[in-house]
Amino acid sequence: MYDDAKVQAFSAFHDLLVSPEVRMDAQEQYDELLRLVDNFRAKGIIDQQERKALIEVATVAYARAVGAEGGA
């Protein structure tokens, strides 16, 4: 059960990371990714180290999206 929950959590994170909702801008996507990560941690699905790694992934994706929006 725990492994299934973790697989589903990582899958949900990945899906949102690569395919945000149509009307979702970079900030909204980032906020939602952080909310997911905190929710996974609160439920005990991921540990603190995994939480940190997912936040780093979300932050890099946000920085790239904002850079791309700025015309970089």
Describe what you observe in this structure.
- It is a single chain.
- The chain has one domain.
- It is mainly α.
- The radius of gyration is 13 Å and the shape is globular.
- It starts with a helix and ends with a helix.
- It has helices at 2-18, 26-42, 48-69.
- The longest helix is centred in the C-terminal third of the chain and has 22 residues, at 48-69.
- The model has no long low-confidence stretch (mean pLDDT 92).
- The protein is built from three helices and no strands.
- Helices cover 78% and strands 0% of the residues.
Helix content: over 70%
Number of domains: 1
Distance between the termini: 44 Å
Number of helices: 3
The coarse silhouette is: globular
Q: In terms of structural class, how would the helical and strand content be classed? A: mainly alpha
Spans where pLDDT lies below 50 across 5 or more residues: none
Report Rg.
13 Å
**Structure summary, number of beta strands:** 0
List the helices and strands and how they pair.
Layout: H1 2-18, H2 26-42, H3 48-69
Helix pairs in contact: 1-2, 2-3
Quick synopsis:
This protein has 72 residues and is mainly α.
Question: What characteristics describe this protein?
Answer:
single chain, 72 residues, mainly alpha, 3 helices
